[in-house]
Design goal:
Blueprint: E1 6-8, E2 15-17, E3 21-23, E4 29-31, E5 43-45, E6 49-57, E7 63-69, E8 81-83, E9 94-96, H1 107-117, H2 130-161, E10 194-199, E11 210-220, E12 225-229, E13 240-242, E14 246-248, E15 259-260, E16 270-271, E17 274-276, E18 286-289, E19 293-296, H3 305-322, E20 331-334, H4 344-352, E21 359-362, H5 363-367, E22 374-383, H6 394-397, H7 401-414, E23 427-431, H8 447-457, E24 462-466, H9 473-480, E25 485-488, E26 504-509, E27 511-512, E28 529-530, H10 534-537, E29 543-548, E30 556-558, E31 570-572, H11 576-589
Parallel strand pairs: 12-17, 18-22, 19-20, 19-22, 20-21, 23-24, 23-25, 25-26, 26-29
Antiparallel strand pairs: 1-4, 2-3, 5-6, 6-7, 8-9, 10-11, 11-12, 11-22, 13-14, 15-16, 27-28, 30-31
Helix pairs in contact: 1-2, 3-4
Organism: Rotaria sordida
InterPro entries: Glyco_transf_61_cat (IPR049625)
Pfam families: Glyco_transf_61
Length: about 600
């Protein structure tokens, strides 16, 4: 009688005993029809650790096995898969062994292990047909080696595809699609908090240059304080190693916290948890949250899209990635100044945050949605916010090119832009700035003249004059991605330049540095042409930046009587000869023919 294929496996639910050892229990069986895929999911380890086993039976009775081993501080449960390949009319079994699981195993490793251990697998021996038995063994070995070889080719192909930055963004990508899980000897235990940081760990005054992850930390809603739990009676542990002050044992010192929550923060915008010598509260005392949460602070100033997109919100994404804590289901928690629902700040939050995280909320509103007095976070990320537009802070942007590009691409994709659909013909967009929060406009003064000049000089190229206030953010993303040459004023309106397609050009206005516009300590000197957003834009190498320089009083006009600051209160008068030089450079460097 012919047997239908079936799968026998152990499913172990591992329960913590005195925080030191585990026991296994519970065996289940799965059964499927002949020639149907078999799948097994969700091996669960209590306390938020998981074992996941997936097994599929193809039409040719080939098994593909993938195991992920996640670790606890104290112990790791051993799992290996040994597989048997038999004829289609025979059953096959999957069992667990007692071999130690030293590290997370890839599919390739498991296939190799299976091949090397196949000699020890008990296969039925047909004494009447020894040649047939040998053939069966050979076929099994060949099949396993074939699977390994195919997987090897896939890994090589994946390696070369990942080198293309434009290909990297099916959301971010790269190594951070999911957090990399590995054995962690410094992870949190079950009775106290833990932490780790990147940044300066010597000088207490360097709180604004630190980015940290806190594990098993709780927010006390009554005291309005984050509590870091240290085991009662445990040894005193230094946090910082100050060259002058020696060991520092607290997260808060000299009237400031441990990390910075806002890009241009003072001591009042710094933050650090409060250490308490208590056991970590039980699940009966507190509500525990598993996904990553990121603590940040909104910079409460006049509306400027650049500061919101690239400082307020981007810093949360950067912090997760830099600490290997990226979570697509992360929750961003604004600490103190959450924008009012419906205002422009809040609308921009809704345009950006869903591109890489689950939601954004105020700390107060979010924690009060839970009934318990304590809300505990398995992972809380904080810090790392830095100014992106100041020349003085440019060194902090250096090295973040890939982070910036992935963040930008995730936003484009969230708004439905196909990043593979690059423009096939030239399109020039001339930005008409009609609105500003300040009295001055800081626009292109002779916009109509510029428009007529481009139409006359480049009649074969499509020209569109765009007022971005007439477009939704989603529409702006799509219009930008159809543009090959963008001509724009500087300032907040230019901070959408990074959303241009790869290989395109932007001509962005400088400003003239007069005495009133000069800021002490800035690199730009009086009488020079200043690239207002150059410290930011220069870190998007997929776009060529052509700065229209402003050299004298003939190149600008003040926006209102009595104005004197050429940085804030002047609009630019474009010279057509100099503009043509830059447009010609863009056309010459482009892979698109100007006559298309």
């Amino acid at each position: 009688m012919s047997h239908q294929p079936y799968l026998t496996t152990s499913r172990a639910q591992c329960t913590r005993v005195n925080h030191k050892k585990y026991t296994t229990n519970s065996i289940q069986r799965w059964h499927n029809d002949n020639k149907e895929n078999l799948s097994l999911n969700d091996f669960t380890l209590i306390d938020r650790q998981q074992y996941h086993l997936r097994i599929q039976n193809g039409l040719n009775n080939t098994l593909n096995t993938n195991i992920n081993c996640y670790y606890d501080l104290k112990a790791a449960i051993p799992y290996e898969v040994i597989k048997e390949l038999k004829n289609n009319d025979k059953p096959f079994d999957i069992t667990h062994s007692s071999l130690p699981c030293q590290r997370e195993k890839t599919l390739t490793q498991i296939i190799i292990l299976t091949y090397l251990t196949s000699a020890s697998i008990s296969l039925p021996v047909d004494n009447t047909n020894n040649q047939h038995n040998i053939g069966t063994r050979m076929m099994s070995s060949i099949m396993i080696l074939t699977i390994y070889y195919l997987h090897f080719l896939l890994e090589i192909n994946h390696h070369y595809e990942s080198q293309d930055t434009a290909f990297s963004n099916d959301i971010s990508l790269h190594q951070i699609q999911e957090k990399i899980n590995e054995a962690d000897l410094l992870g949190p235990s079950d009775d106290q908090s833990a932490w780790t940081c990147t940044g300066n760990m010597n000088y207490e005054s360097e709180w604004h240059r630190r980015t940290c992850t806190f594990k098993n930390i709780c927010y006390n809603k009554t005291g309005k304080v984050f509590q870091f739990y240290r085991r009662p009676g445990s040894i005193k542990k230094p946090i910082l190693f100050e060259p002058k002050l020696g060991h520092i044992y607290d997260f808060n010192i000299n009237n400031h916290g441990f990390v910075n929550l806002v890009a241009r923060g003072s001591m009042h915008q710094s933050w650090g948890p409060t250490i308490i010598e208590e056991w970590l509260p039980s699940a009966n005392e507190a509500h525990y949250l598993e996904h990553v949460h990121v603590l940040f602070m909104h910079w409460h100033v006049s509306y400027n899209p650049g500061h919101i997109i690239w400082e307020d919100i981007a810093s949360t994404y950067f912090a997760m990635v830099r600490l290997n804590e990226y979570d697509r289901n992360a929750v961003l928690l604004e600490y103190r100044n959450f924008p009012k629902i419906g205002d422009r700040f809040h609308q921009m939050y809704q345009n950006i945050v869903p591109a890489f995280a689950a939601k954004v909320d105020s700390l107060f509103h979010y924690t009060n949605s839970f009934s318990s007095p304590l809300v505990c976070f398995q992972t809380l990320v904080a810090g790392g916010a830095k100014s992106m537009f100041s020349i003085g802070n440019e060194r902090y942007t250096h090295g973040k090119e890939r982070l910036l590009y992935d963040y930008r691409t995730a936003i484009l994709q969230y708004h439905g832009v196909n990043i593979s659909d690059l423009p096939s013909r030239h399109r020039i967009v001339l930005v008409n700035k009609t609105e500003a929060k300040r009295r001055s406009l800081r626009a292109i003064s002779n916009l109509v003249e510029v428009k007529n000049f481009i139409k006359l000089t480049y009649p074969q190229i499509q020209l569109d004059v765009i007022d971005w206030t007439k477009y939704t953010f989603t529409q702006q993303m799509h219009e930008l991605y159809k543009t090959t040459i963008l001509i724009t004023p500087c300032g907040g309106i230019s901070t959408i330049i990074p959303f241009l397609p790869k290989g395109t050009h932007t001509i962005v206005m400088d400003f003239y540095v007069n005495k009133e516009a000069y800021l002490k300590g800035e690199r730009y000197q009086i009488g020079e042409s200043g690239s207002m957003d150059g410290a930011f834009l220069n870190y998007f190498p997929h776009i060529r930046k052509l700065y229209y320089q402003v050299r004298s009083a003939k190149d600008y006009v003040f926006d209102f009587p009595g104005a004197s600051n050429t940085r804030h209160d002047a609009s630019i008068i474009i010279n057509m000869t100099r503009l043509k030089e830059l447009i010609d450079v863009a056309l010459d460097e482009s892979n698109i023919s100007p006559i298309n």
